[in-house]
Design brief:
Length: 185
């Protein structure tokens, strides 16, 4: 049971949390060698490299992982984050879009993709992406704030007001939400 790809990946994460990066890296590489299609091992090793400012190795590893598992939303998302750090925004936007499309129900991927769209000046597309996931997450504070912001950026003040009202209705006792809403009332 201990010598499985999942166990090696978990052990690598455990060592990383202890600051034992060499052992963490060894375990994560062993996990990848055991199963080159196990996306979580790549993602964890990339994260270990990120905190060590080893982006060149991260990119090589992510491209290897995506070659093995082109349908991994997790790896597309991680690659998008790496590309943002490298200021390669158009490529990052494409990777975030792939991640969001591969797992349409993942609100985190949708949110990050929407923020990337908005940062590229496409507030309408950003709002469309948020609206896609809002029905199944109608009281999610982060999504509602994003919907309000993208509506405002797109000049749709009626929709903005509606999202503000939904936000306050979903969080009637939250002082931070109330403070956020009050700046627009």
């Amino acid at each position: 049971n201990a010598d499985t790809v999942e166990a090696r990946t978990s052990l690598g994460g455990f060592y990383a949390n202890l600051g034992r990066v060499d052992e963490a890296e060894m375990q994560m590489k062993a996990a990848i060698a055991m199963d080159p299609n196990f996306a979580a091992a790549y993602a964890n090793l990339v994260d270990l490299y990120r905190v060590q400012n080893r982006d060149a190795e991260s990119e090589k590893l992510l491209l290897e992982g995506l070659k093995q598992s082109p349908g991994s939303s997790e790896l597309h998302h991680a690659y998008g984050l790496l590309l943002v750090r490298q200021n390669r925004k158009p490529e990052a936007l494409a990777e975030f879009g792939k991640a969001a499309k591969l797992v349409p129900s993942n609100t985190r991927f949708a949110y990050v993709y929407a923020v990337a769209l908005d940062s590229e000046g496409n507030s309408k597309a950003a709002l469309s992406e948020i609206r896609r996931v809002l029905p199944s997450n109608a009281t999610d504070t982060e999504l509602l704030i994003a919907a309000e912001t993208f509506s405002r950026n797109a000049g749709d003040y009626k929709a903005m007001q509606g999202y503000l009202q939904t936000l306050i209705n979903a969080n009637p006792n939250n002082p931070q939400v109330r403070q956020f809403v009050e700046q627009f009332v």
